[in-house]
């Protein structure tokens, strides 16, 4: 499964919105799909799914604004790890 599909499925599971209805560029927090507590769940699931550690200083809007930004962030983290 591609990173795009994995991240979309994780967000869909947390928001209870079907993956097909989620848009990659929708701001997850401005549209109130997730709260700050939802972010913690998202981070935990991303860490588990991709076997990585997300540091507290990385919990910024630029990394988690949308599915697209999360995908870019995960891509960068995986590249750093290899």
Summarize the structure.
The chain is mainly α and 82 residues long. The protein is built from four helices and no strands. It has a single domain (3-59, 66-81), classed as Non-ribosomal Peptide Synthetase Peptidyl Carrier Protein, Chain A, CATH 1.10.1200.
Write a structural description.
This is Carrier domain-containing protein. Residues 1-78 form the Carrier domain. With 82 residues, this protein is mainly α. It has a single domain (3-59, 66-81), classed as Orthogonal Bundle (Non-ribosomal Peptide Synthetase Peptidyl Carrier Protein, Chain A). Helix content is 57%, strand content 0%. α1 runs antiparallel to α2. The two termini are 19 Å apart.
Give a quick set of tags describing it:
82 residues, mainly alpha, Non-ribosomal Peptide Synthetase Peptidyl Carrier Protein, Chain A, 57% helix, 0% strand, Carrier domain-containing protein, ACP-like_sf, PP-bd_ACP
Q: What CATH architecture would you give?
A: Orthogonal Bundle
Beta content comes to under 5%
Low-confidence stretches: none
CATH topology: Non-ribosomal Peptide Synthetase Peptidyl Carrier Protein, Chain A
Number of domains: 1
Radius of gyration: 12 Å
Termini Cα gap: 19 Å
Name the assembly state: single chain
Order of helices and strands: HHHH
Query: Main β-sheet: number of strands, strand sense, barrel status?
Result: none
Count, helices: 4
Write the topology of this structure.
Elements: H1 3-15, H2 36-50, H3 61-64, H4 67-81
Helix pairs in contact: 1-2, 1-4
């Amino acid at each position: 499964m591609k990173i795009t599909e994995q991240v979309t499925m994780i967000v869909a599971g947390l928001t209870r919105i079907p993956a097909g209805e989620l848009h990659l560029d929708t701001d997850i927090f401005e549209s109130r799909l997730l709260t700050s507590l939802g972010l913690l769940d998202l981070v935990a699931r991303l860490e588990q799914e991709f076997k990585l550690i997300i540091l507290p200083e990385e919990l910024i809007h630029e990394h988690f604004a949308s599915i697209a930004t999360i995908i870019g962030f995960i891509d960068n983290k995986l590249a750093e790890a290899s």
